[in-house]
Amino acid sequence: MPDRSDKDIDGFFSTARVSGREGAVELGDESFRDYLFDHDDPAIAPWRGLDYEQFSAARQDNDFLQQLLEDWNSLYREPFVGVTTDGIPLEGLYVLPELGTGDAALVNAALRFLDALDTEQRDRVSYPLDAPEWRAWSNPEFVVHRVGLRLEDLSDALVDAVHDVLRAAFSPEGYQRVREAMELNGFLGELVDLPLVMNDRSYWFSMFGTPSVDQPWGFQIFGHHLGVNFVTVGGREVIAPVFIGAEPALSEDARRPIFDGRETLALRLAESLTDAQRAQAVVFDSVLDPTMPEGRLHPADERHVAGAFRDNRVVPYEGLRVTALERGQVAMLREIVEDFHLLLAAPERAATMAEFDAHLHETWFSWYGATDGSQPIYFRIHSPVIIAELDNHAGVWLSNRLPARFHVHSTLRLPNGNDYGRELLRQWRSRAEG
Predict the structure, then answer these.
(1) How many whole angstroms separate alpha carbon 174 and alpha carbon 221?
(2) What is the pTM of this model?
(3) Average pLDDT for residues 393-409, to the nearest whole number?
(4) Do 206 and 220 form a contact (C-beta atoms < 8 A)?
(5) Phi-psi region of 420 (alpha: psi -120 to 50; beta: other; left: phi over 0)
């Protein structure tokens, strides 16, 4: 069991996750099951029997979370700019092609879902295309903003209709990844005996605009360890921001870690670095390196910088410029990027990868921790058209106070103003008005 000598911040978060350590965090052979709380442990027992609304109200009744929510709401109220390196968005990065049409099968799935709702439900799930609620998504198990309809409050038939929309919007393998994240959340609820707090329907679903093959529209689904924003505009599809995580990230031999392929490939790339490349790419020797500047570690986000409410974050480039990589290393990095875009249907993924390739010379790769798999890791791939990161986290519902591979967060954004398809929507409106 872990060292419990560090101090709790609020009962879930501890000082250990935000405190630099002289010694690196080493991974052993422990299973996530070695960090399960006893059934009657006061860390989880008080929440048993509460539904998600009761849990959310009780969970937020402390100074730490009140301050966190105040900070998040302050960010939410800011006018949208986009993630940048210096606060000023670059222009001309995303170009809307000659206007095409949307996917009729997806539109039909969305309309079938809307037709199955009663008037009140339809009003609650529908928002204008430019509604601020796009930016209200979050990934904790407690509710921050209520946007749209909660899946666990819907009938089985309506939940199936939501999944029909997701299945039509995403690639087959992308839909499976989203479904896996939802199922792992249900698995976690079973592990800790809190199925009313965490289950495979702990998600809010909403639509923006009116589903149409020739007008822009989109949808959003978010909840514990999942946040996906989808927009279709002028024949292009944008899926960003994306947040996918899991605790535990695997369920023993029956299921490989949700990002096993991505992490394995990233470690292969990191291990392939020459000494000169490694000296630039490895920004910090440990995920809890004591040389990290003040504020670099966040008790909720830990190391990842592009999560919920970080729509306008200034994130300078760091690490190794990709021009310093060999051809085979670039191929591995590109495969990792393509995995981040897995939710996109194959033609859209190819178009998005072409945008990435156009800025390959401006792409940076950064790494925190050992490059041999012996430690928890954080890595980021960052260019004018992507910020993609993966971070191993400390436990929330598991008792590990230090980061481990079985709790993972992964984020994807389109910097310089194209999260939520904003830049393509701006161009579409300009053409429509012109």
Answers:
(1) 14
(2) 0.95
(3) 93
(4) yes
(5) left
